Amino acid sequence: MSDAAGPEPGPAEDARRTVPLFPLNAVLFPGVTTPLHIFEDRYRAMVRDLLAITDPAERVFGIVAIREGYEVGEHSVQSSHRVGTLAQLVGHQAHDDGRFDLEVVGRQRFRVQEIHAGEEYLRAQVELYDEEDAGSAPAEGQVEAQVEAQRTRAMFEEYRSLLSDLRGGPVLAGELPRDPAYLSYALAATCLLTQGQRQELLEMPGPVQRLRRLRDLLHRERQAMQALPSLPATEVARTRWSPN
Predict the structure, then answer these.
(1) What are the φ and ψ backbone dihedral angles of 54, each rounded to 5 degrees?
(2) What stretches of 103-206 show up as alpha helix (H) in DSSP?
(3) Which of 92, 120, 123, 131 has its CA 20 to 30 A from that of 221?
(4) What is the pLDDT of residue 224?
């Protein structure tokens, strides 16, 4: 899949910065909280350096999804996508053997400009993108985004009900964000999608395009579940929405 899923989102002014880079066999979205288990030596060093930063808001690093399933070694950076998400370390547990269990929350999308692989752990110069804020968009754009959000939320409720029936109990529970941009991220992280589909959604330029694509994917998934109701539903993604 190409890294370009439509016109690129515009970069924020003065948005270039250098951050530690963590290739992961998953896609992280802004506003979504996820656990990480850190065991490789160089990323243990990365976590120690992050924890040494006094301001918790500055304990950030970049997460990029890997194309081919490698999370360690040089393969991880060679096969990773260029669009990822800036993650903030919000919780940790250190183990006696040097491993860490982390809780991180996605903050903002970025595009990798240059990777520095010769240091103790991967670092990259990235360009951060402004996240879409429905309240600051032109009035016409706000209305369009809200309409798309309402349509997608309604389809998701039907999808959630069908999936719950197949699983024999409630799934994908929880209140969804009201903001169209963050609704699109929450659904992209929650629905039963492939990693390639999630990466495609991450790279889309705005919430309107992302919500429309989500409805298309939900429609296809719903058709598959209705056609083959005897097959077990795919394991639900264990991610949580965070308003941070």
Answers:
(1) -65, -45
(2) 139-167, 180-190, 195-203
(3) 131
(4) 72
Tokens at 53, concatenated:
């930063």
For the stretch 143-168, pLDDT in tens is 899 999 999 999 998 888 877 777 66
Phi, psi (deg, nearest 5) at residue 200: -60, -45
β-pairing, 60-65 vs 11-24, is: parallel
Is 129 within 8 Å of 110 (Cβ atoms)?
A: yes
Which residues on neighbouring strands pair with residue 91, listed in sequence order? 103
Mean model confidence pLDDT for the chain: 82
* 27-53 per-position pLDDT tens digit: 999 999 999 999 999 999 999 999 999
Which residue has 């370390």 as its token pair?
89
Cα separation, 140 vs 125, whole angstroms: 35
Residue with tokens 């490789």: 40
SS3 state of residue 88? strand
User: Is the pLDDT at 240 greater than 70, yes or no?
Assistant: no
